[in-house]
Amino acid sequence: MGAPSYVPGTPRLAYEAIGTGPTVVFMHGIGGNRTNWREQLDALAPEFRAVAWDARGYGDSDDYEAALAFPDFAADLLRLLDHLGVAQAHLVGLSMGGRIAMDFYEAHPRRVASLVLCDTFPGYDASITEEQREKFIASRRKPLVEDGKEPRDIAPLVAPTLLGKNAAPAALQRLIDSMAMLHKESYIKAIEAMTRYEPVARLGEFRVPTLVVCGEEDRLTPPAIARDMVARIPDARLAILERAGHLSNIEQPLAFNAVLLDFLRRQR
Description:
Blueprint lengths: L4 E3 L5 E6 L4 E5 L10 H7 L4 E5 L17 H14 L4 E6 L1 H12 L4 E7 L11 H17 L4 H12 L6 H12 L3 H13 L13 E6 L7 H10 L4 E5 L6 H4 L1 H14 L2
Parallel strand pairs: 3-4, 3-5, 5-6, 6-7, 7-8
Antiparallel strand pairs: 1-2, 2-4
């Protein structure tokens, strides 16, 4: 990935854009950054304007004061689209990025041309209690706050749990490197904000072309969740990628790019 451009303001947002044509915006997961989409930007550039951002507090984007409210991400995405002069964009989001895409669609449906929701879920429903949410947050905070570790210390332990059982060593190393680059305090804020966020996406009300992608070996947001999402979103399409876990775009980039390009070309 090359040097980033920036959306001015507070916080300043880093992004990279290549190619010309309809705009496609890629949003990484909670342990990622814009470099996670390297193969996708290269694949789309001949036909699309492919844009990948670093969410606030990630990669080359600025950190920020005070706590994070999850809708802040959607507000940042609006800033990015306005900065680019884009009236309507195709949104591709993985994991947390998928939740940002859904949140943005509900707030600004006219700015969305299509949704590609990858290895993600629509939110925590009532079956997940407040106590369970806080326990999850505490488990993620402990090594970084109480034990004084840095993201680079936990990356080799966490990364293998996210990938498929046959993930290539290069894919594992990319994820470890990505997690090692996390901004510690902003990462914790993102975990807290996403876990405590109450709304569940109203999938039945979506009225935009939607593709749901999931790795068949995804243990965090397994294919059963993807199938349920497709059943609830009108006319949504489903792609289950073989030999891929939660980072399906990194683990199986050729298969991921094939289904993504096929979907996007149908929207032209």
